[in-house]
Amino acid sequence: MANDTFSFSSPDDQDDQETAVLQPVAADGLFAAAATGTATPQQSDNGTNNHADNTAYVGEHVMASTTAKSHGKAARIAIITIFAVLLAALIAYFFVGRWYFQDKAAPGVHLGNVSVMGQTREELANTVKQQQNNTTVTFTAEGNSVKASLKDLGVTVDTDKTVDALLNAKTGDVAKLNIFDQPHIALTATTDKETAEQFVTDGLVDETDRAQIATVVYNKSTKQFDYTAGQDGKGPDINVVNAAVKEAVATPGENATVPVKIQTAKNPIDEASAQQTRFDANAKLGLKLTVDNGVNKSVTIPADTIASFLKPTVNKADGTMSLVVDRDAITKYVTSDSVTKELTVPKVTREVYITPKDEGGVEIGADKTLGVDGIEVTGAGDAPERLATAIEQNQSTDSTVAVKDSPYDVKQVEVPHNFDTANGDKWVHVDLTNQTATAYQGTTVVRKFNIASGKPTADGSMLSDTGTFYVYLKYESQTMVGEGYNQPGTPWISYYNGGEALHGVPAYMWGEHPIYVQQGIPGSHGCINMQVADAKWMYDFATIGTRVVVDGTTPTSGQALRPAGADATGWQGGNAS
């Protein structure tokens, strides 16, 4: 309705031209608001204003309007509050959920048809194994049935990879927490169709009726691959078997029953192809294949193990059999505990002898124990590939695993020096004055021997040195060479002072019992000469680090200190070192 305005004079006061303004009536019975926004009372039927009635009427509508406005405001507040609460909950869910599920399976994730939400890696691994073990497929045909586990059907489950797939089923913080996304994850597994077919065939078809594929199998008794001819017969519909296996992997934990049709089956393998595979496999058994640590240890791979690397493989599509080298089997062998142990070299600390610390702690140039660098096997290296290639090419080869060297440590050890008590540490006293050598343990005399020391000369260059020394080097036999002598086959040598040693006199020079040793006549080039048997005893007694004390004065008269024994008749003359 148009906003028309009408003006008129009041009948009660014609002189005063009071002007009333009428406004259109609104839909709710009120006049439309003026510019001030105030509602105007409605005109009565007789043209006068009914102030009392209009006041009540307007009041009622003003109160109703105010109440409606209050209710609308309250509703808006309630909606905003609910929205704020929901938003806060959503934000809390996002941050708490992101923290809680960071290392757990996300909401909605299933292993097959089983929810794994909130499970940790360890819990998921247990679930995978449990569901794997609970999975069965029962095949039925012509009144027979056979119940199979995943293992029976040639399924090998990779638990770690399956757990990874479950943990990574959802990516991204928002997507991961989306409860409406419900991914169903299958087992991560490899399948062997031949194993599945054979298991179902064995369970549903009588042995005499089965189709037999030609086989080439290693015989541990004969150490050769044997060939078995195939034959035609009956077998299950392999397509149905394969589909059942696929479904079992996708929905682990289920117990399915699958009807399968028995049909005519033929041996698909050409006999000549199978025989050639057998010949090739046996030829490879004679290869010399080794694995070493690159330093000092190696393992020769036995024929039985080489046989485990060779997989006669059937190709039904073209009816052939071929030999495949299993690289995974090679890697497993190369990194096995037995091979690793054989190629590992434990580190041995080198213990270096020093004189007693109260005597200066000087190295004597001898080791109590020899140092050995450690060798640790850290992986297969290129050994598997090298071996596989050699087998494929029918060639012998050496291969080396990955190793880490660990240099030996060096430790200083004092020589034995407990000489003040009975039965203490071993030591030897060489008495130049009396031309004897006495073996002691502490203060206890063990054994005494006749000797002949370095002979006196004008310049004294051949005299045996006096002092305290230590055995630092030993030989059972050696060619001793020096100025004026060359003695091959010198026996039982114990070096204690540079080129000076306790040793036996070769029998070819003086016989078994050299007379000058028996009589105590100095006659060597500085060494302590002994009879062969005595030198052997001293060699065994005076281990590396044994103290040798040489003192006294070498006789210069050239006269015998003691008589020769009755067994000295073999003396032939000559010089000794």
- Enumerate the spans where pLDDT stays under 50 for 5 or more consecutive residues: 1-52, 569-575
State Rg: 53 Å
Strand count, sense and barrel status of the largest sheet are: 5 strands, mixed
State the separation between the terminal residues, measured CA to CA: 147 Å
| Count of individual helical segments | 14
Report strand %.
25-35%
**Morphology call:** elongated
Strand order of the largest sheet: 25-24-23-31-26
Q: Label the structural class.
A: alpha+beta
Average pLDDT score: 85
Count of DSSP E strands?
A: 31
Helix content: 25-40%
Structural write-up:
- With 577 residues, the chain is an alpha+beta fold.
- 29% of the residues lie in helices and 28% in strands.
- It has a five-stranded mixed beta sheet with strand order 25-24-23-31-26. A four-stranded mixed beta sheet has the order 27-28-29-30. A three-stranded mixed beta sheet has the order 2-1-6.
- Helix 5 (193-204) crosses helix 6 (238-250).
- The longest helix has 50 residues, at 51-100.
